[in-house]
Amino acid sequence: MTISSTTKTFALGLAMTASALTLISAPSAFAVEQRLGGVVGCNAAGSKQEVGAVIGGLLGAVAGNKLAKNERGAGTAVGAVVGAGAGSYVGCKMQKKDARQAVGGTYKSDGVRFADSIQAEPVTQLDGKYVARSNLNLRASASTRGAKVGGVGAGQTFQALGRTGDGKWILVGQDGVGVGYVSSAYVYRA
To answer: Distance between CA 60 and CA 30 in Å, rounded?
Structure first.
């Protein structure tokens, strides 16, 4: 029995459609389990998760189509969902690794991870998002005399890892690593 080129084209189209639908509406079990926020919600900067989800979805759809004997459409759809989830998981892991390398080396102080260039201050740990009210300097220490190591733009949402004991400074995090301090007077909880 031979498969016509029309059937192959239809199966590939179905696989691509299933992959696209997966990206839009179906966070996979892998992504949910790892709390990645769905197929496109990795908490590390970059686009490897999305690329991984698309490639995984396409490969999964093709594999599902080939493995399903009587229900090729269902096999294609299931394969696309599983493949997109696996690709999403791998892509997010790659994004997180890249983010760790971007901040350089890290060290731990009182259970908080800091980039090597940041001075550890005793902080009360926070786990949430904050928004900058205005353009802010990101400082290497919790002081206006601390070296400027970057900035947070007005309206930008950022990860907060901690608040200094005097409440005046917020430790800004990138993928769970403290990368600098901003004044708490100019931020609010997202």
So the answer is: 14
CA–CA separation, 141 and 179 (whole Å): 10
What is the pTM for the complete model shown? 0.50
End-to-end Cα spacing for the chain: 60
Task: Tell me how long the chain is.
Answer: 190
- Express each pLDDT in 66-88 by its tens digit: 888 788 888 888 888 888 888 88
3-state secondary structure the chain: CCCCHHHHHHHHHHHHHHHHHHHHHCCCHHHHHCCCCCCCCCCCCCCHHHHHHHHHHHHHHHHHHHHCCCCHHHHHHHHHHHHHHHHHHHHHHHHHHHHHHHCCCEEEECCEEEECCCCCCCEEEEEEEEEECCCEEEECCCCCCCCEEEEECCCCEEEEEEEECCCCEEEEEECCEEEEEEEHHHEEEC
Residue type, 149: V
pLDDT of the residue at 82: 87
Residue-wise pLDDT for 22-42, tens only, equals 444 444 433 333 344 455 566
Q: If you compute the radius of gyration of the chain from its CA atoms, what whole number of angstroms results?
A: 22
Interatomic CA distance for residues 171 and 118, integer angstroms: 10
Query: Measured between alpha carbons, how far is 90 from 113 in angstroms, rounded to an integer?
Result: 23
